[in-house]
Amino acid sequence: MMRRLFIVLILVLAGGCWTAAIGQSAGVEGQQEKTRLLIILDCSNSMWDHWQSNAKIKVTQQVLLSFLDSVSGTQAAGVRGDGEQVDVALRVFGHLNKEQFGTRLEVPFGGDNIYRLQSKIKTLVPQGGCTAAAALTDALSDFPATGSSRNLILIITDGMDDCEAEICDVARQVQLSGVVVQTFVLCIGGEVSAHASCAGSVFPVEHEEDFAKTLYDIFRLSGHKAKVLLNMVDVRGELYETEHPVAFYDHRTGVIRQSTIYSVDGRLKPDTLLMDPLVTYDMTVFTHPPLRREAMQFDIDRVNPIDITVSEGTMKVMYSGQRPQWQQTSVDVIVRRAGSGDRVAAQEMGETGQYLAGRYDVEVQTLPVTTLRGVEVRGGAATELSVPMPGMLVLSKPKGITTGAIFRLRDGQVEFATDLNPSTAGERLLLQPGQYEVVLHPQSTTSYNKVQTKRFVIESSQTTKIQF
Question: What CATH number has the domain spanning 2-222?
Fold first, then answer.
C-alpha cells in the first residue's frame, strides 16, 4: 500500500512539475532548456536509523526507485512531446568504506541512464561519515559544460550535525559559481541542522508519507517564478517618480541573485519582477542612504507587493560671496550620517543630490575642510547650504628643498589646513577666509632654529602674497 502511494504521487510529479521546472527558459531553435538534476545522497551511518516503517536508507531507496520509474520514459525518449528534456545524475557520500569518508559520482549525466541509476541505488550500503561539504564541492564538475541547461542539486540527508562546518562556505561558492541555479536539501526525519540550512533551501520531511509529496513541492516551485511588484511611494501614498538601483540578495548566503533599476514616471507604472519562490531575499534600494528589507519570501499564486515609503529631499552646497577673477576648481562634498561618521554619498560643489529625510554631517573639501553638522533634509524640500568663497594664497618659498605646512588659527587653537609641496619654489592655494600661519623647514638641516613662520590673513575672493 505504501509503495502504491509513492508511485501515484511520483507519477503526478512527473506529469506536472517537470514541465514547470523548465517552462520559463527557452533553448536554441525554439526548444526548451534541458533540466539537469544532480541527486546527492547521504549514506552515512545514521541512515541505518529506524524511521517509522523501516531504516531511513530503505525508505529513501524505495522512493527514489519509484521516482526514477516515473521519469524513465521521458529520458528514454530524450525529449517529451512538449519539448522538455530531463537528465538525472547521482553522487553519493559516506558509502565507500568504514575507513574512508569519501564521495563519488556513481552515475553521471547521460541519456538513458535510468537503469544504471536504479541499479546503483539498490546496492548502496551506508557505512561512512558525513562528507557533504566535499560532495557539494565536487558537484560543480558533475554538470557538463556544453549545452544550455537549468542545473539543480537535490541533497537527500537525515541531517548534517556531524558534517564539516565548511559546508556554509562551500554552498556560497556553489552559488557564486553560476553553474547551479538552486540547491535543495530534503531532510528526512524532520531534523534540520544549522549546516543543512547553510547548504540550500531546506524541506523537512517528518513522516514517510510526505516524502514523495515534498519532492513534488520542490520541483513544482523550482519551475515557477513569483511575481513581485515594487512600489515606492511618497509620504502621501502616491507613486514616487524616481529611478533607483535595486539589488536582491540570497538571505542565507548573501550572494546577489538579481538587480534592476526601479523606474516610474507619471505615465508608466513599475513593471513586475520575476523571482525564485524558493529563495528568501534581502533587498537593498540604493537611495542615499540605502533602504533595506530582509528575509522576504514570495508566493507563486499571487502578485507579491513590496511597498516602500520614500521621503526624500535635495541638498545643494554653493559658495557665497563675490566671484573671484581666477577659475574655480571642483570641490568634493562628502555627506555622512549625523553623529555616526558613516559615509552616505559624495557630490560636487554646486551639484544637487537626493537624500532621505534626516540629519547629516556635510564635509566640504575646502582647505581646510569645512564641516556642517546636523544638516536637516526634509522630504519634498530643497536644502541649500553655503560656504564662504575662498581666497588665493600666492606663496614664494626660499631656495632649496623646503618642507612645510599651513595652519588656520582659530580661538587660540591651530587647525591643520594642508602640507606644502617640497619640490616647488612657489605655490598657489585656495584657502577659506581666516587667519593662518605658514611653517617652513629646510630639509638640509635638522635645527629647529632654521624653522621659519609667517602669519597672514585670507579674505574671500582676494589674493594674498607671502614671500620668504
Answer: 3.40.50.410
Quick check: pTM over 0.85? no
Question: Residue 216: left (phi > 0), alpha (psi -120 to 50), or beta?
Answer: alpha
CA atoms within 13 A on the CB side of 386: 6
What is the C-alpha separation between 339 and 214, in angstroms, rounded?
A: 51
| Residues linked to residue 115 through DSSP beta bridges, in sequence order | none
Any idea which residue has 528575509 for its cell? Answer: 295
**Average of pLDDT values for 294-314?**
92
- Max avg pLDDT among 4-13, 52-61, 148-157: 52-61
Confidence of residue 164 (pLDDT cuts 50, 70, 90): low
Tens-digit pLDDT profile for residues 65-98: 888 877 665 444 333 333 446 788 999 988 886 6
Task: Show the cell assigned to 313.
Answer: 529631499
Q: Which helix (H) or strand (E) segment is 404 a member of?
A: strand 402-410
Q: Map out the domains of the chain as residue ranges.
A: 2-222, 226-309, 313-387, 391-467
Instruction: Kindly give, in sequence order, each residue whose CB lies less than 8 Å from that of residue 56, ignoring residues fewer than 6 positions away.
Output: 46, 47, 48, 49, 50, 158, 188, 189
Amino acid at 26: A
Quote the pLDDT of residue 265: 66
| Assigned CATH topology for domain 226-309 | Immunoglobulin-like (2.60.40)
What span, in angstroms and rounded, lies between the C-alpha atoms of 273 and 304? Answer: 9
Q: In the chain, what's the furthest Cα-to-Cα distance?
A: 104
Sign of CA dihedral 240, 241, 245, 247: positive
Sheet with strand 391-396: strands edge to edge: 426-431, 391-396, 463-467
